[in-house]
Amino acid sequence: MQGTIIRWDNERGFGFVKEEITGTEIFIHISTLNIRNPAPEIGEKIEFETTFNEQKGKTEVKQATYLDKNRKHITPKIELTTPEIKLTIPKTKQYAPHRKQSKQNRPNQHHKEEKQPIWLWIVVGIIVIVIILGLY
Asked: Contact, 28 vs 65, CB < 8 A?
């Protein structure tokens, strides 16, 4: 099948494709595109396969390829202008009203659990195996 992207939401990573022959609008997710960067643009032509999503009761794009053969993946350029590197991690919305906790049930935020390194468990495992073999 072939079609044209008619709507696209960059922030949410999905849009709709209008199928060329029937004019049907079909849901498409960014993960189904063969090239995801740069983001799809309205008016771009694609070739795609569809599947029926039983949970939603709708047809959606399963796999898609751009018909514009000149479209290329853009690799972001990283420029370091100072010896200082800052990493910013965007905050995600965490909304779960059914999981509200009272102050009494919340874990102590200042308490940090000490995790044992994996190499320690490997060494302990080897020692146990050597002891068991020594007993036989």
From this structure: no
The CA distance from 39 to 27, in Å, is 16
Look at the block and give the residue holding tokens 């874990």: 107
Rounded distance, CA 18 to CA 60, Å? Answer: 11
Q: How far apart are CA 75 and CA 66, in angstroms?
A: 18
pLDDT, one tens digit per residue, over 8-21 is: 998 898 999 999 99
Indicate the average pLDDT of the chain.
78
The CA distance from 3 to 21, in Å, is 8
Residue 16: the pLDDT is: 95
Residue 43: C-alpha distances to residues 5, 66, 67, 70, 133 (Å): 5, 11, 12, 15, 70
What span, in angstroms and rounded, lies between the C-alpha atoms of 52 and 71? Answer: 28
pLDDT tops 90 at residue 66: no
CATH C-level class of 2-66:
mainly beta
